[in-house]
Design a protein that fits this description.
six-stranded mixed β-sheet; four-stranded antiparallel β-sheet; binds magnesium ion; 251 residues; 35% helix; binds adenosine-5'-diphosphate; alpha/beta
Length: 251
């Protein structure tokens, strides 16, 4: 897109019965940035993600990815468009090894040709290399053969980021990747997210204010389903509405 928005929402709205979970949210995620969405619990952040990636069909409004209207497209088609998400709760196959989890995701991404059942032999070594590279990227090179269920909580979340990366996303949606992590694992995850900046466009939901303030290029603030502010970390920190709605005494 000429203005550089990789993802754009226009007046995105989602009702659950009488509850309006997301109300007319318009935002642009620019290519190459780390853009965070913050807001109190229940303010509609996860629902916004679900709308963006086609988990939920919006009540109203549009979603554009690279200028293309993808509103209501089912989520299984979106990875192929380059939009991949992680989940607020860990979502990996516990019985598979770390390597197998990433390998499967990398393999699934590759669209076979007309004779899809005839895979090139070299493809397997390419996927193998890719899986190993990604596991290195997320700090799990030493855990290739460990079953996912035996990993620590922090390692499982890192693995989930690896699985998400294996789909080669143009836009990475991360929903509270540090949720439930101990301080040290939180720091590791923060460093991991930081290490991806520049190579990926990242939209991050994060509850921990210090992290958001230190690593984001832009921040959108939600409250009661609405976008109440957007700007650089400094702008958001100084915003009165944000202070009132969200930061409060925690500042
Ligand atoms: N599938 C659903 N059905 C009904 N209500 C929902 C559903 N998902 C979320 N909600 C409600 O929508 C509001 C926003 O939730 P959510 O998007 O999960 O907020 P956040 O991620 O900011 O904590 C909450 O009031 C929540 O209870
Ligand atoms: Mg949430």
């Amino acid at each position: 897109m000429s203005d550089g928005a990789l993802l754009r929402t226009e007046r995105l709205t989602c009702d659950f019965g009488a509850l309006r979970a997301v109300n007319r949210v318009s935002l642009d995620v620019r290519a190459g940035t780390l853009h965070s969405v913050i807001g109190p619990n229940g303010s509609g952040k996860t629902t916004l993600f679900n709308l963006m990636c086609g988990e939920i069909v919006p009540t109203d409004g549009r979603v554009y990815f690279e200028g293309r209207d993808v509103t209501g497209l089912p989520s299984h088609r979106l990875p192929h468009l380059g939009l991949a998400r992680s989940f607020q709760r860990t979502n990996v196959f516990g019985k598979l090894t770390a390597y197998e989890n990433v390998w499967a995701a990398a393999f699934a991404r590759r669209t076979p040709g007309a004779l899809g059942f005839l895979r090139r032999a070299s493809e397997f070594s390419e996927v193998d290399e890719e899986a190993r590279r990604i596991l290195g990227e997320v700090g799990l090179a030493h855990k290739l053969t460990a079953r996912a269920e035996t990993l620590s909580h922090g390692q499982q979340r890192a693995l989930e980021v690896g699985v998400t990366l294996a789909s080669s996303p143009r836009l990475l949606l991360l929903d509270e990747p540090t949720q439930g992590l101990a301080p040290e694992a939180t720091q590791q995850m923060t460093r991991l997210v930081q290490s991806l900046v520049g190579r990926y466009t990242i939209l991050l939901i994060e509850h921990k204010m210090r992290i958001v303030m230190s690593i984001s290029d832009r921040i959108s603030v939600m409250a009661f389903g609405e976008l109440i502010a957007e700007g650089t970390p400094d702008e958001v920190r100084e915003n009165r509405d944000v202070q009132r709605a969200y930061l409060g005494a925690r500042r």
